[in-house]
Amino acid sequence: MTDDSGWFENARYGLFIHYGLYSLLGRGEWVMNREQIPVDAYAKLADRFTAEQFDAEALIGRARKDWGMRYVTFTCKHHDGFCLYDSSVTDFNSAKTACGRDLVAEVVEACRKHGMKIALYHSLNDWSTSPNAVDALENPDDGYEPFIAFVHGQIREIMTRYGKIDVMWYDGWWPFDAKGWRAKKLNAMVRELQPGILVNGRCGIPGDFATPERHLTASAGMWEACMTLNDSWGFHKGDENWKSPKQIAGMLRQAAAGAGNLLLNVGPKGDGSIPDAAGEILDRVGAWLRINGEAIYDSDRFDFDYNRRGAHRADWTHSGKFTARGNNIYVHMTNWPGAEFVVSGVECEVTDVRVLGGESCAFTLEDGVLRISGLPESADTTMPVVLRLKTNDTPMIYRCGGHRNPRVPHWRYDPCPSDIQE
Question: Could you tell me the pTM of the whole model?
Answer without folding.
Answer: 0.94
